[in-house]
Amino acid sequence: MGQPTIKDVAKLAGVSISTVSRVMNNSKPVSPEARQKVLDAIAKLDFKPNELARSLVMRRSNLVGVIVEDIGIEYMAQLIRGIEEIGRVYNYDILLQSSYGNEEALNNSIDFLSTKQVEGLIIITENLTNETLIKLRETRVPFILLDKYHAYKNLNTVKIDYSKEQYKLIKYLYDLGHENVLYIGNSEDNVLNNAKFAGYNQAADELNKENFVLKIDGLSSNDGYNIGKEAIKICKENNITAVTLMNDEMAIGFIDYCADNGIKVPDDLSVVGFGDSSIANIYRPNLTTVSIPYYDIGAIAIRALIKRIKHEEEILLDDWVIECTVVARESSK
Predict the structure, then answer these.
(1) pLDDT tens digit string along 304-319?
(2) DSSP tally for the chain: helices H, then strands E
(3) CB 221 within 8 A of CB 250
(4) In terms of C-beta density within 10 A (0-12 exposed, 13-18 middle, 19 or more buried), how is residue 11 classed?
């Protein structure tokens, strides 16, 4: 005997096919007696519905597409874990694609996932063009966009208040007793950089401290190392005892420069980063930094998307803003 069908279940239970369908999908009321007959027939026949066929009929796939720039980026992996684990709680699986920062690859991924009947999309990118945004809207597939470098009108997202978090970090340094703090950040004009500069300036202004800002082009550990000579010169000329850098990688590169030039961290100079990358707790001295809860961002994003898919989302005027934590370690005192 072949695989039992819904017709076999209906025949054994003595009900119509539509009644079996209503019981399976819990879509319309069915009498307790009829429901029990259907359940008994399903159990006796060991009936397993064709999930692909059901998804085509019900327009439900329980799939969410996730597009990242590069899964090799450390924080991307944490975001994906939050999305996947919480998605499974709601019986959703993910299909993962990487764009590698290429617009054409991103558009191809959107097209590909649309053909797989995903019910929603989460796009994790650091730069989305208006053309791709239009394409996303034209798919009519609910989506959540996670982009820390840009802001988009009429698109609610899960994000960090980088201005507030940078303020907390600078305030922490002032509370330690540092009178002058140098901020080394990236020179590009974008939402993230501007927010961090604003947070630094707010903390300094509130406490009537002088502002010391050094803007550079890069974001890597090499960039942090290469700016070392100029930064140390500024520190010596202005009696600066603490330096905060754009991210952990730059901070570690800068600490390397200090070590190579006889400057002890934190005895001579406190140094802090931002992001709490995995190396921050391995490098010596352990790096004081701001810990970003990437897992939570992914978890909240998938919950918000599922609500959007099920039309359960309330009218939301503001973004979901996630709190970070200053993690004090050996590089500051």
Answers:
(1) 898 888 877 655 556 7
(2) 13, 12
(3) yes
(4) middle
Interval 235-292: pLDDT, tens: 999 999 999 999 999 999 999 999 999 999 999 999 999 999 988 888 899 999 999 9
**Cis peptide preceding 29, ω within 30 of 0:** no
Tokens for 266? Answer: 């934190």
CB 245 within 8 A of CB 331: no
| Cis before 142? omega within 30 | no
Confidence of residue 58 (pLDDT cuts 50, 70, 90): very low
Mean pLDDT of the chain: 87
Among residues 29, 25, 83, 79, the alpha carbon closest in space to that of 54 is found at 25
* Two tokens, residue 330: 């050996």
Better-scored residue on pLDDT, 128 or 110: 110
Q: Token match 């998307």: residue?
A: 305
**CA 320 to CA 71: how far, in whole Å?**
24
Q: Identify which of 266, 265, 90, 241 has the alpha carbon closest to the alpha carbon of residue 180.
A: 241
- State which H helix or E strand residue 65 sits in: strand 63-68
- Report the range of poorest mean pLDDT among 55-64, 179-188, 306-315: 55-64
Question: For the whole model, what pTM was predicted?
Answer: 0.76
6, 15, 38 from 30: Cα distances, Å: 17, 11, 10
Residue with tokens 């703090």: 181
Residue 332 and residue 176: Cα distance in Å, rounded?
9
Give the residue among 158, 157, 146, 227 at the shortest CA–CA distance from 186.
Answer: 227
Question: Which residues, at least 6 apart from 2, have a Cβ–Cβ distance to it below 8 Å?
Answer: none
